[in-house]
Amino acid sequence: MMRRAVYPGMFDPVTNGHIDVIKRGSILFDKLIVSVGCNPSKASLFSIEERMEMIRENTKDLKNVKVDCFSGMLVDYLKEQKTNIILRGIRTISDFESEYQRALTNRALNKEVETVFVTASEQYAFLNSTLIKEVVSLGGQVSQFVPSNVERQLIKKCKHIYEKNGS
Length: 167
Ligand code: ADP
Hints:
By secondary structure, the chain is of the alpha/beta class.
């Protein structure tokens, strides 16, 4: 049986931590669909297209990984993608709590849905997109946290903030 899974997230932008999860998922599953969530109630720095493109550029060597986007209910999207498996990453205890709630909610919405967790690599366990955006907007280096094309895009987006800070 072909095992497919969906790895959903905001990926605003994709980090080395996300890429680590994608690599692990591509080994665990026959096909992994990395899907950028469109959530109009959450402000994002990058457009859906920009986020998808940055993921694509950094996963092109993983032949069983596809990049997509979705809006609305994840359980409906899973049906569309003909899978019942959600892949997520866990960094910290606080991740565990929110991920556990999400997993149980999705299961309550569709009892066939199963959430599979992989643990972060310790070197990326502290990474999150929000902190990375903060560092860039203050003029800091993020080359150890994100791929180089993502760093370039971040600097481009945050240029006006830099200039305002006089750096
Ligand atoms: P959210 O859905 O909370 O916006 P993200 O889009 O940033 O989260 O991340 C999607 C998934 O990737 C989540 O399961 C999150 O726990 C996981 N993740 C993010 N960063 C890392 C990391 N550094 N290591 C492992 N998993 C991560």
